[in-house]
Amino acid sequence: MTGYLLKGCAAVVTGNEVLRDVDLLTEGPAIKAIGPGLSAPQAEVIDAAGWFVYPGLVNTHHHFFQCFVRNRVELDWTKLSVIEWLDRIYPIFAQLTEESFYHSSLTAMAELAKHGCTTAFDHQYCFPRKAGKGIVDRQFEAAEKIGLRFHAGRGTNTLPKSEGSTIPDEMLETTDEFLADCERLIDAYHDGGPFSMRQVSLAPCQPVNCYRETFIESIRLARDKGAILHSHVGEGESEVIRARHGMRTVDYLEEMGFCGPDTFYAHCWELTEDELRQMAASGTGVSHCPEPVYLVGAEVTPIPAMEALGVRVGLGCDGAASNDNSNLMHCLHSAYMLQCLVASSRSHNVPEPATFLRYGTSGGASLLGRTDIGQLVPGMAADLFAIDSRRMDYVGTRHDPESLIPRVGIGTATDMTMVNGKIVWADGAFPGLDEREMVVEAEAALAKIDI
């Protein structure tokens, strides 16, 4: 068997068009062909009658380690000030061990795969001293177990609390320490070739929690190694940066060169239209995380303005500290609905629902510098998911598969998720893995943390 033949798909949403009543053939890691009446004697045939098949979702911002602080009433943003919340949450993060990071990553990746995500970028900025430097290595191990395409955003915090950051000393690193581990990880794991399953990015946590030199040296190393740059930007810190450096965050980063087609920022809900125009001009992208807006955003991210100006946009789940699930498919629906909520107060029209599907697929691929994922066309990676549309949930919706997820929402796991030509989730199970065993092991690791 050299691939799979999905026979009789009700619809294949390629990213450019919707093809009805066609077959989809994979060969190795790639899509071989899409069309009616395909045959491939060496392929395993899958009955895809009634299936809507989509490009795999690309998650561009997450914090996997936060999966161990989900659904905690005592950590509810609505009941605490930011300072109170930080004072409670960071002592918990400081307890995390290498084992905790592995199991929380496995937990997040499993939920992502169940809901159609095939590529995930994790912004891992939490490095308690007692956890050591093997955290990202264990994340790659978890990704291999689930079968997910993984981009590791190796983050850091270098500025002490005594100088204005929010990070306790036991979670600080020096810039040199950070750069040395980034170089080690890139040399050990980073693959910039087609169908790469492992990549490493340099991702200082945020300007308010790092020295300027951390960003400058990240730029130097990333461009030397051909890696992507990432950070938190525009989530309430711009006036703090102005007080420290005499300019808001976007200008501060642009002045040092932390911008461009190889760079993307997370959040950006507080940016002005002029700042968005600057980002469009430099090619800097945005990972929009819609669900944290409900809890911690002072305003709804101006996605229509970004779209109108040509800013590259992808979608992210963000961590469980501000979003208690790892379901990017749900975020597509949230992103669209949030923009509808505030549409009457803005001069820009809400993008079409299908545009939000693009943000979650080819838009995310663009942020990660990938030209081999994000669409279903021959030669691209066989990253896809399928929804059986023959359910009461979808009666009256089946005429428009592109808008189904953003506008209607999907309340169940996929019927199948495929990454790089391999099925990683199908018929309610992870092939070759015991989900209940993984749950027991993860909860045992969780029980060791004093929350």
Automatic annotation (TrEMBL):
It comes from the Bacteria. GO terms for molecular function: hydrolase activity, acting on carbon-nitrogen (but not peptide) bonds. CDD domains: ATZ_TRZ_like (cd01298). The keyword Hydrolase applies. The keyword Cell inner membrane does not apply. Residues 52-424 form the Amidohydrolase-related domain. Gene3D superfamilies: Metal-dependent hydrolases, Urease, subunit C, domain 1. Keywords: Hydrolase. Signal peptide: none annotated. InterPro entries: Amidohydro-rel, Metal-dep_hydrolase_composite, Metal_Hydrolase, MTA/SAH_deaminase. Belongs to the metallo-dependent hydrolases superfamily. ATZ/TRZ family. This is Probable hydrolase protein. It comes from Salipiger bermudensis (strain DSM 26914 / JCM 13377 / KCTC 12554 / HTCC2601) (Pelagibaca bermudensis).
